[in-house]
Task: inverse folding
């Protein structure tokens, strides 16, 4: 079935809708959100998906072309969130790291953010921003890049 | 300035603005030195012909600005009977420091807006009175949505300016950025606009994160997205280029032309702050974007704090109405001077609207409540300024809307539609204002060329 032409023709690249993206990012960073309003108004508004603002009955389209031109607010969230620079959201990145080494941290990010499915080239790219004993800042920034990556 | 004591609904809406300001306090202010910079054009006309369509600056006065103070109908005697302490005195009260500045023998500007008198006299500033949203709602939420959408339809979540951009080709072929919202969140006005984004602050427009590692992270993302599926790869590269484009404006060293000064001190020497100060910063950024000549064709600016239920204070320097009007007038004047110095003002139109006017009768708290008719204002060299346009409906009790507010004799869309067609060169007004019950009626507010 996977080799069927019809199946392959039906393939369309996927981009998470902003709400899905935001919730995913908060979840994989184990973020504690103390005030949801700022998430909605600051982040989701800029990503163009305020909950319940799309006319009934269909909801926001799950179509890549609607969202793909507006990546900057996603990248902004991706880079701010792990630094704890978003208002009313605090992440917990370090408790799951077993080995504070380049490979250990990269593997933890791969596991927690991508479920271990990161392609080899991207994994190597992620490793490249970490030193042999990564600092907290390096770890935060590596998480940010992972959240901003096309695979997330 | 005291913050205007707005109603509960406006306070909720304006929380968005507060959240925006707080969330950006951790950002840095310095553009990386490795960024290339653009050269601000010293003479726009030397490069572009007069056939170019205008860049539009759309300004929304959020909260319901009191149009009866912004443009005072001093010759309508009923005005003074309704407002015992808020009325702007007649211009002929020559010993009264708060007296209005006569415009045409019937209307006057309040002292706080005196900076616009010269532009009015020069024919570049137009006021349309008794204009606004014909739907009778007095809800901020509904009125803002309806006006920004261009139709009284709660299911319409794209804006008239966004649809304008979507229904006309790029002014500059291949432009990376066509619409800019100079606030923390994209206003509905611009929703639906292709290549449109919000720029909370031009001094620190970025992907977030530390400035020290920005170059490294940018290259990381560039590489990652280059290897992605094609639509995503293009979007990633365009996102990076857009950020680089705005950083290339090198805004921190921007020098306004013609000696223009944004956020001028008030007559007592004090400074503006809050929404009034934010507005000056946004106007300065708008000028920089336009002079940077990077292909942006629509800029939207929100200016809040106009919901003056209590202590409207149009004469006190730190009253919300005084400071708001002072900031509006002086910063419009600064923008005009700045852009005119590079011959750029000939292709710029500024349109200013607000959701509804305020009650004709002042209330017991030295304020006014939600009304109906208001003003629409235009600034530009192709505006038929120097006049107060529109049919005056009168302020006598029997002439009022629902017994307490100014009637509307001009649909605000008539003015905007005329700007869209004549100055932005977009004839597709049914897309910009998709309301089958509405047919634009031009009022000769602007010239086509």
Result:
């Amino acid at each position: 079935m996977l080799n069927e032409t019809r199946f392959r023709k039906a393939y369309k690249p996927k981009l998470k809708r902003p709400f899905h993206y935001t919730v995913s990012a908060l979840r994989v960073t184990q973020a504690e959100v103390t005030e949801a309003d700022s998430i909605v108004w600051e982040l989701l508004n800029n990503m163009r998906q305020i909950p319940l603002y799309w006319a009934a009955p269909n909801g926001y389209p799950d179509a890549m072309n609607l969202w793909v031109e507006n990546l900057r607010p996603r990248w902004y969230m991706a880079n701010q969130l792990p630094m704890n620079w978003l208002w009313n959201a605090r992440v917990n990145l370090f408790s799951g790291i077993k080995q504070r080494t380049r490979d250990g941290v990269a593997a933890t990010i791969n596991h927690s953010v991508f479920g271990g499915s990161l392609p080899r080239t991207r994994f190597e790219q992620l490793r490249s921003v970490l030193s042999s004993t990564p600092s907290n800042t390096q770890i935060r920034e590596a998480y940010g890049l992972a959240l901003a990556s096309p695979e997330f | 300035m005291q913050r205007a004591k707005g109603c509960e609904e406006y306070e909720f809406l304006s929380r968005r603005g507060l959240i925006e300001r707080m969330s950006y306090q951790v950002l840095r202010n310095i553009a990386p030195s490795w960024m290339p910079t653009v050269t601000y054009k010293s003479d726009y006309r030397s490069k572009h012909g007069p056939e170019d369509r205008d860049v539009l600056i759309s300004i929304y006065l959020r909260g319901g600005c009191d149009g009866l103070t912004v443009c005072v109908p001093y010759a309508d005697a009923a005005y003074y009977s309704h407002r015992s302490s808020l009325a702007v005195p007649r211009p002929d009260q020559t010993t009264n420091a708060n007296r209005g500045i006569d415009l045409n023998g019937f209307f006057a500007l309040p002292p706080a807006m005196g900076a616009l008198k010269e532009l009015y006299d020069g024919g570049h500033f137009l006021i349309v009175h008794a204009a606004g949203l014909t739907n009778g709602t007095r809800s901020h939420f509904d009125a803002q949505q309806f006006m920004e959408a261009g139709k009284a339809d709660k299911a319409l979540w794209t804006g008239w300016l966004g649809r304008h951009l979507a229904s006309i080709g790029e002014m500059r072929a291949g432009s990376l950025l066509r619409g800019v919202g100079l606030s923390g969140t994209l206003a509905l006005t611009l929703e639906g606009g292709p290549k449109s984004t919000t720029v909370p602050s031009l001094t620190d427009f970025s992907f977030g994160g530390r400035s020290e590692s920005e170059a490294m992270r940018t290259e990381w993302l560039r590489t990652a997205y280059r290897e992605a599926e094609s639509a995503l790869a293009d979007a990633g590269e365009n996102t990076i280029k857009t950020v680089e484009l705005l950083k290339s404006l090198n805004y921190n060293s921007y020098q306004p032309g013609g000696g223009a000064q944004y956020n001028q001190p008030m007559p007592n020497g004090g400074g503006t702050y809050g929404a009034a100060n934010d507005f000056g910063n946004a106007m300065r950024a708008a000028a920089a974007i336009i002079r940077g000549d990077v292909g942006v064709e629509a800029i939207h600016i929100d200016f809040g704090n106009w919901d003056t239920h209590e202590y409207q204070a149009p004469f006190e320097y730190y009253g919300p109405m005084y400071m708001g009007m002072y900031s509006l007038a002086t910063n419009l004047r600064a923008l005009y001077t700045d852009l005119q110095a590079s011959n750029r003002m000939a292709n710029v139109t500024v349109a200013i609207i607000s959701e509804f006017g305020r009650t004709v009768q002042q209330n017991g708290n030295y304020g006014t409540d939600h009304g109906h008719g208001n003003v629409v204002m235009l600034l530009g060299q192709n505006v038929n300024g120097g006049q107060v346009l529109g049919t005056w409906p009168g302020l006598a009790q029997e002439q009022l809307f629902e017994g307490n507010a100014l009637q509307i004799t001009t649909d605000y869309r008539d003015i905007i539609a005329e700007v869209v067609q004549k100055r932005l060169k977009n004839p597709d007004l049914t897309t910009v204002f998709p309301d089958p019950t509405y047919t634009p009626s031009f009022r000769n507010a602007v010239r086509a060329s």
